């Protein structure tokens, strides 16, 4: 059901400038840095007096950052919730304080907090579809007979980790020649992806497909594979999600097969949706971002615009 502010959500008046909160979860990878920059880059043209925080990978700090923004009297909250459940109190407190909240890039547990009721809308990608598309590309391009798959999961309890796993695993479960032998979190971080891959390689030296829930972990996995004398791109197919500069370079270098896009450039979309809401227009509960797919066919032409 689409919603407008008249439906009982916190109102937002039309004005020239807004005090806007953007409560970032962490800044330890290029994706997060690009997302935060996108909000800063949009601020002036959208009339935002932007209060941006960095929770440094702590859901508890992210909740506290939102508390502090509420105390500072923000007009609007843009929140990328690090995990699905721990950030629900932040959504509820903003709701109780009468602050229209837009979830950015990740969502919260839909059984508890709902768009059109507790927050206005979720702006982001279809993570299940991203996982599905990686799986389908892998099935079409894997040259071996038996796929021995290691999966590097994102942050435990986050919507992209849950959904990217579901999308990929459900497709693979329909193919007898594909076996996921290990699935472990690398917390969406390069170094942890490398460490986890090193450990999993000991237990599963016959791995020939690595599916990472984001590019940073894929790059970490490539490092671990090379250190172990493996040849990513030749004897191991590495597939992933995001579309970072390093991933596109790895595709160009022949070390990675595919990355399905997950764009971090939310600033302009956030501005557009906020202004529509202030104008009383109807907002979809999920403003869905369309994602491209990067392979050897288009990585070179897209690398200059990558982050
Ligand atoms: O929520 C989107 C994910 O979060 C991106 O894929 C990942 O790189 C980031 O940390």
From TrEMBL:
<protein>
    <submittedName>
        <fullName>ABC transporter substrate-binding protein</fullName>
    </submittedName>
</protein>
<comment type="similarity">
    <text>Belongs to the bacterial solute-binding protein 2 family.</text>
</comment>
<feature type="domain" description="Periplasmic binding protein">
    <location>
        <begin position="21"/>
        <end position="281"/>
    </location>
</feature>
<dbReference type="InterPro" id="IPR028082">
    <property type="entry name" value="Peripla_BP_I"/>
</dbReference>
<dbReference type="Pfam" id="PF13407">
    <property type="entry name" value="Peripla_BP_4"/>
</dbReference>
<keyword id="KW-0732">Signal</keyword>
<dbReference type="InterPro" id="IPR025997">
    <property type="entry name" value="SBP_2_dom"/>
</dbReference>
């Amino acid at each position: 059901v689409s919603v407008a502010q008249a439906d009982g959500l916190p109102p937002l008046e039309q004005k020239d400038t807004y005090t806007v909160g953007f409560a970032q979860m962490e800044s330890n990878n290029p994706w997060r840095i690009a997302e935060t920059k996108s909000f800063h880059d949009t601020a002036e043209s959208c009339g935002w007096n932007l209060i941006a925080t960095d929770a440094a990978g702590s859901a508890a700090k992210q909740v506290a950052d939102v508390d502090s923004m509420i105390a500072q009297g923000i007009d609007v909250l843009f929140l990328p919730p690090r995990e699905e459940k721990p950030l629900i109190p932040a959504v509820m407190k903003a709701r109780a304080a009468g602050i229209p909240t837009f979830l950015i890039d990740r969502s919260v547990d839909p059984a508890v907090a709902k768009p059109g009721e507790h927050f206005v809308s979720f702006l982001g990608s279809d993570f299940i579809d991203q996982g599905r598309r990686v799986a389908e590309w892998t099935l079409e391009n894997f040259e071996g007979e038996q796929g021995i798959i290691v999966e590097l999961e994102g942050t435990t309890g986050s919507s992209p980790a849950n959904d990217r796993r579901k999308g990929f695993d459900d497709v693979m479960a329909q193919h007898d020649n594909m076996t996921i032998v290990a699935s472990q979190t690398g917390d969406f971080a390069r170094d942890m992806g490398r460490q986890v891959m090193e450990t999993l390689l000991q237990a599963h030296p016959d791995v020939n497909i690595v599916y990472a829930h984001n590019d940073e972990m894929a790059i970490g996995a490539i490092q671990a594979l090379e250190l172990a004398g493996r040849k990513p791109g030749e004897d191991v197919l590495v597939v992933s999600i995001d579309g970072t500069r390093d991933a596109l370079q790895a595709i160009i270098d022949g070390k990675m097969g595919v990355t399905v896009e997950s764009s971090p450039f939310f600033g302009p979309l956030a501005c557009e949706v906020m202004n529509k809401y202030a104008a009383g227009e109807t907002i979809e509960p999920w403003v869905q971002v369309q994602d491209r797919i990067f392979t050897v066919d288009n990585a070179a032409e897209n690398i200059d615009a990558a982050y």
